[in-house]
Design goal:
With 239 residues, the protein is α+β, with helices and mostly antiparallel strands. Helices cover 16% and strands 46% of the residues. It contains four helices and 18 strands. The strands form three sheets. Strands 6-2-3-4-18-17-16-10-14 form a nine-stranded antiparallel β-sheet.
Length: 239
């Protein structure tokens, strides 16, 4: 049995995962709940962990269960602010109870999925950019005016976002307020704008997003949802 009073964090987490993954394996261990999966297009890898200490009660045997994340997301979207969440597992289903003004019990069938764990890539990145989430989201909205892709550059201590097409071009120079940059080499790399926007969507606007970059290499984007970190690896595009 798992119990959680802060249902909003779990709600946001499932929404962030479901932005890319429709079904995947939840790994319940002695340390907490882990989820790692590739999206069907193999463009984004999602890596997420809810530590045991995050839960108000965590008493569950280590196990691996396949879950339809789209259906789970629908259930979690029905959670109210004052609800408490409890989760239990049987051999065939996940049982979820939202207990607040109403007590609602849901049963979600388990699904049989490949149990091989996806391995996160190991890159030595050349630049680390920590940027305010609201600032990055607005910059990406601007970039979407002209293109479906975006070029990220780090050069001489500056972080630049570029997009362009037949209708126009845009270059955004991030100022020092709300951003920090560490780099050991210049970086130029291109990414899908739609995927990048979906990656940062669940980040709290006043929090920071960390981007780890290397030229012509997948980027790593990470931020906290509550006290738990979510990480994404986004494949690069050919410049």
């Amino acid at each position: 049995m798992i119990e959680l009073n802060n249902v909003q964090v779990f709600q946001r987490s499932i929404e962030a995962l479901n932005a890319f993954i429709s079904e995947g394996n939840f790994r319940f261990s002695m340390d907490g709940l882990k989820f790692k999966a590739l999206d069907p297009s193999q463009i984004v890898l999602v890596d997420y962990e809810l530590k045991k200490s995050f839960f108000d009660k965590y008493e569950i045997e280590p196990t691996l269960v396949g879950i339809d994340l789209t259906e789970l997301n629908k259930i979690m979207n029905r959670a109210q602010l004052a609800d408490k969440l409890s989760i239990d597992l049987t051999d065939s289903e996940m049982q979820l109870v939202l207990d607040g003004d109403l007590k609602r019990a849901f049963k979600l069938p388990l699904i049989d999925l490949n149990d091989e764990e996806v391995k996160a890539p190991r890159y030595v990145f050349d630049a680390v950019v920590k940027i305010n989430a609201r600032m990055l989201k607005e910059a990406l909205k601007d970039a979407s005016l002209f293109s479906s892709s975006v070029v990220l550059k780090v050069s001489k201590g500056k972080f630049v976002i570029e997009s362009g097409g037949v209708s126009g071009n845009l270059a955004i120079n991030a100022k020092t307020k709300g951003i920090s940059i560490e780099s050991k080499a210049e970086v130029v790399s291109k990414y899908s704008l739609n995927f990048l926007q979906n990656i940062v969507k669940a980040a709290d606007n006043e929090s920071d997003i960390t981007l780890e970059l290397k030229s012509d290499t997948a980027l790593k984007a990470s931020y906290d949802i509550g006290s738990n970190k979510i990480q994404f690896y986004l494949a690069h595009m050919i410049l």
